[in-house]
Design goal:
two-stranded antiparallel sheet, seven-stranded mixed sheet, disordered N terminus, alpha/beta
Length: 236
């Protein structure tokens, strides 16, 4: 996601296609909302080439879901469950409509209308194998989001971070993460970080003096969370 663009008539700007897995070639609508810019196809394809075609057994978090292109791609390749977090209620409605259209259920694709930073602060450590972080570029939240996401990764897990500026490698190292892959495509700076250790291993202790909650205090203060929108329930 990056800076907003002029609005188009009708509310929908364009669509993105899922690249692989069971929903390959399925389309996701991209609403015309401020700050929404899905990860470019080339970058998304490269990311999932890095990760592999089959993500079966992976637990995934798409913390700034937007159009859902990253989270739905992970689910299409077998990740279960996949959490998709989004603050914008209009986008949340679109994500739930896409879930229904693809025939997925609320257990496999868990969509919440919530502030991602607040949500991550409340989760248990070592909960995810893959965390996808693509916050709006203008909000400059990549570092704060990564500080909160790092403790949530299991050993051997991956964090993908996308931003509009070059990354600070020292920050990832202090969080106990190692660079795995990176690329630049136009104004997009993308990197894949990995928590050392074999999958399912013991979680290493945090770096001395690391306080992940404090890293996002300023960002949280500037972004008060909306009232959560409950998942719709079908009638019995």
């Amino acid at each position: 996601m990056s800076a907003s663009r002029p609005r188009a008539a009708g509310g929908a700007r364009h669509e993105v296609r899922l690249i692989g897995g069971r929903w390959k070639r399925s389309k996701l609508p991209v609403a015309d909302r401020p700050g929404l810019r899905p990860t470019p196809d080339r970058v998304r394809e490269t990311l999932f080439n890095w990760l592999g075609r089959d993500l079966s057994g992976w637990t995934c978090l798409d913390a700034f879901a937007g159009s859902g292109a990253l989270g739905f791609e992970a689910a299409s390749r077998g990740a279960f469950p996949v959490w998709l977090l989004e603050r914008d209620r209009t986008l949340v409605e679109g994500l739930r409509a896409a879930r229904l259209r693809l025939g997925a259920d609320a257990e496999s694709l868990r969509i919440e209308c919530v502030d991602a930073l607040v949500w991550m602060r409340r989760q248990e450590v070592a909960s995810f194998d893959l965390i996808l972080l693509d916050p709006p570029y203008a909000d400059d939240l990549a570092d704060a989001a990564l500080a909160l996401a790092a403790p949530l990764l299991r050993p051997g897990g991956f964090a993908y971070v996308e931003s509009g500026r070059p990354p600070a490698d020292a920050g990832a190292s202090a969080l106990g993460l190692q660079p795995h892959r990176e690329l630049r495509a136009g104004g997009v700076h993308a990197r894949l970080l990995r928590r050392p250790g074999p999958p399912g291993g013991a979680l290493p202790p945090p770096a001395p003096g690391l306080n992940c909650a404090a890293a996002s205090t300023a960002a949280d203060a500037a972004r008060s969370p909306p009232d959560p929108t409950p998942e719709p329930r079908s009638s019995p």
